[in-house]
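Appendix B, record 7
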Amino acid sequence: QHNKLFILNACRRSTKSSMLMWYMTWVGLFQNSKHMALISTDSRSSQQKRRYILDLLGDIKPKSANQSEIVFPNGNTIKFMSSNAYEHMLCGYSPNMIFLDDFAYFENQANMMERIYPLVCNKNTQVCMASTKNLEDDLFYRFYKDSLNSNSSWVSQCVNWWDLPDGLETMKSVSEHIPKIIFDKEWKSNF
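Structure tokens (predicted):
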């Protein structure tokens, strides 16, 4: 199914970031004319994700790779960006896929969406927003709650601790060591 706006509400240790990078690597290798932007919470996280994708490529050599971009052998690209540099983000670059990793923890969510929405409205740009919940009054919360409404343009998926292969064992060990309010925030994906 082709959805333009997708939101993933996932608990801790659900490998949501890894899933995004696996998917981006697959798209980069096997689809045509894809120019992707991966926006992370900070530059350190962005660079970790860049290194992870290079590791996923293994023996496949990219056409080029630097601190901010990987160019796949077929010409597809991934640009790596930090949410705290939103003023110049996407200037001169028109990706057709935008991935927002840990969006609930972006400090400048409204400014970020001001940069992204023109691309979504004017082009065939897809947006995938993935995060563990943070606050009940941030944009991630509002977009996710809106996605539960059938009239929303956002399509959602939720991953809870009990969806994980080792969910029960993990839940038991984690819940014994942290307060219930923190467990509910980090491990239960419901708001």
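Remarks on this record: DSSP finds six helices and eight strands in the chain. The CA atoms of residues 100 and 129 lie 5 Å apart.
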